[in-house]
């Protein structure tokens, strides 16, 4: 490579370090290994946080494909035509981000250093990489190999990404970035999360140094989705780390790394830490770890932006076994109990609303400041908790607990991985970001949450009461299912529970409007029904005062006009 290529790339790293930048599509993933879960499940979570992402479930029926068939790929974000590639002989059924073999994949975007952040001129983007892997692979190891082969063959048209992968037995973190216009393909590394541990990522590359030993290979089982030339061999079960052969040499060639292979850090090379990478990204991983693992306080300074503080580890051992509802709750966080608690500063207003409208950064009197970027955020299009259970047949063992809008106020509804129809409320084409639909869960849940922002601390209690009731009910409904439960029954159950959720949320929407109209709070009984007198007249509502600090701010700002004169 000519030296003229080396110096612009190295300079771009320095420029990146000086900027406060957050990826346009900023997401959060948690990864839970089998030994860290209460019942032996594996879990991954994914919050798709984008101001333009609509909450719906993509569906691929799967099946046989004739020789010569091709697949036209359209960019996951822009929907522009990207590339056409050969189809494989057989593809698997996919519901959202899980397939019929209980393979689930999530992601977060970190972009990376220029000019690697825009990908190759032609190739496959991260979204289609996920969907193709789900259609063509049966477990994490096959999925990693499928994605690696796809970008090697057709190129990679995106920047840095971290993927979460789960199957009934293993969970992995897989990080990739393109080679820009320098070379076709990508440089990547994947690590299995040790059993008994949890991992996470949130728009910042997290794999630093890693074991650099050539993968051992074994003969793969017959694989109808891929021709024998592609996955005839797969890396062996004892292999816990795999990587592209040039992951370090490419960095050397571009002037990004000049040390020993053993000292090569993927994250520090391809996505160096910045203040935003810590405060807006690593802080979210810290928040998840902090709520379920001991000894996390020592990483707080790092999460708040101090690059010299002790670095957050790639994975930690939780202090308890995590059940499915625990995992759901870990995705509901506003940094409560930390100095970054979004419910406590004046930006939360008098009703402790933990959301801040964009932009996240602002300037006052020449000084720069930021709003926190929490796991729970208003612009979430959809989120899920993927649960994979090895002791059950695939069609009932794999569940995509799916929800739309903000994770704190959503309701996770079980979508079995082999259903043959998606409920209407989650179906593609039922509304969009520019078109309202009364039968779309996305618009109903957004209507509820956006109303809650007006008097958050009171209204969110009603939402959480209904949310917990439905989620507990859903969990109890699926826990008793056995292997003899058919695919048809699983489809019917997923569709029925989704409709029950919609009915419940419509009732909640009506209750909130009735109870909180005009800033009043009507009295309700233990079941949430609005109380009336014996003659049917509504009880006079309560009218809680603003907090004292808020009155004081009003006086400081406008007291001379509002003061009562004797």
Please explain how this structure is put together:
The structure is a single chain. By secondary structure, the protein is an alpha+beta fold. Helix content is 30%, strand content 19%. The chain has helices at 3-17, 126-136, 140-154, 228-231, 249-253, 266-270, 275-290, 300-303, 324-330, 394-397, 441-452, 456-479, 487-516, 548-562, and strands at residues 29-32, 42-49, 59-60, 63-64, 70-74, 81-86, 90-91, 94-95, 98-99, 104-111, 160-166, 171-178, 186-192, 198-201, 217-219, 233-235, 241-243, 315-316, 361-364, 367-370, 380-388, 399-404, 413-416. The strands form seven sheets. Strands 18-14-1-2-21-22-23 form a seven-stranded antiparallel beta sheet. Helix 2 (126-136) packs across helix 3 (140-154), helix 11 packs antiparallel against helix 12 and helix 11 packs parallel to helix 13. The longest helix has 30 residues, at 487-516. It is globular, with a radius of gyration of 25 Å.
């Amino acid at each position: 490579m000519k030296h003229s290529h080396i110096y612009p790339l190295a300079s771009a790293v320095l420029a990146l370090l000086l900027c406060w930048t957050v990826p346009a599509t900023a997401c959060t993933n948690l990864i839970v290994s089998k030994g860290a879960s209460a019942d032996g499940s594996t879990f991954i979570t994914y919050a798709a946080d984008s101001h333009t992402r609509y909450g719906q479930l993509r569906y691929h029926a799967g099946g046989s494909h004739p020789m010569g068939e091709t697949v036209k790929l359209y960019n996951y974000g822009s929907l522009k035509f990207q590339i056409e590639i050969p189809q494989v002989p057989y593809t698997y059924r996919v519901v959202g981000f899980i397939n019929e073999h209980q393979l689930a994949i999530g992601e977060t975007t970190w972009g990376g250093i220029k000019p690697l952040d825009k990908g190759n001129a032609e190739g496959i983007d991260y979204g289609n990489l996920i969907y193709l892997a789900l259609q063509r692979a049966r477990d994490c190891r096959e999925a990693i190999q499928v994605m690696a082969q796809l970008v090697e063959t057709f190129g990679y048209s995106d920047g840095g990404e971290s993927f979460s992968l789960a199957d009934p037995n293993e969970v992995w973190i897989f990080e990739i970035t393109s080679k820009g216009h320098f070379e076709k393909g990508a440089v990547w590394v994947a690590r299995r999360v040790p059993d008994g541990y949890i991992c996470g990522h949130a728009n910042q590359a997290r794999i630093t140094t890693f074991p650099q030993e050539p993968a051992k290979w074994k003969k793969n089982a017959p694989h109808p989705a891929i021709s024998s030339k592609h996955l005839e061999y797969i890396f062996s079960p004892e292999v816990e780390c795999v990587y592209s052969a040039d992951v370090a040499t490419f960095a050397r060639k571009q002037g990004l790394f000049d040390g020993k292979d053993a000292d090569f850090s993927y994250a520090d090379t391809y996505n160096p830490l910045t203040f935003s990478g810590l405060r807006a990204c690593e802080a979210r991983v810290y928040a998840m770890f902090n709520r379920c693992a001991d000894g996390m306080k020592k990483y707080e300074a790092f999460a708040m932006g101090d690059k010299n503080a002790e670095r957050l580890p790639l994975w930690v051992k939780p202090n308890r076994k995590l059940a499915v509802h625990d995992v759901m709750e870990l995705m509901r966080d506003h940094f409560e109990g930390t100095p970054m608690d979004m419910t406590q500063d004046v930006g939360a207003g008098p009703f402790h609303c933990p959301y801040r409208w964009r932009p996240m950064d602002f300037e006052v009197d020449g000084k720069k400041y930021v709003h926190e970027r929490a796991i729970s955020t208003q612009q979430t299009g959809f989120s899920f908790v993927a649960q994979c259970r090895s002791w059950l047949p695939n069609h009932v063992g794999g569940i995509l607990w799916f929800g739309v809008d903000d994770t704190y106020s959503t309701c996770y509804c079980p979508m079995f991985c082999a259903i043959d129809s998606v409920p209407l409320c989650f179906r593609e084409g039922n509304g969009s970001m520019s078109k309202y639909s009364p039968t779309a869960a996305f618009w109903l849940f957004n209507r509820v949450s956006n109303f809650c922002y007006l008097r958050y601390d009171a209204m969110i209690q009603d939402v959480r009461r209904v949310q917990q009731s439905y989620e507990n009910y859903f969990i109890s409904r699926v826990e008793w299912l056995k292997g003899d439960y058919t695919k048809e029954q699983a489809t019917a159950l997923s569709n029925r529970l989704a409709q029950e959720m919609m009915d419940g949320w419509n009732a909640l929407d009506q209750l909130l409007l009735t109870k909180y109209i005009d800033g009043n709070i009507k009295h309700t009984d233990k079941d949430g029904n609005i109380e009336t007198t014996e003659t049917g007249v509504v009880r006079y509502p309560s009218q809680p005062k603003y907090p004292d600090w808020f009155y004081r701010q009003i006086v400081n700002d406008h007291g001379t006009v509002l003061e009562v004169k004797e």
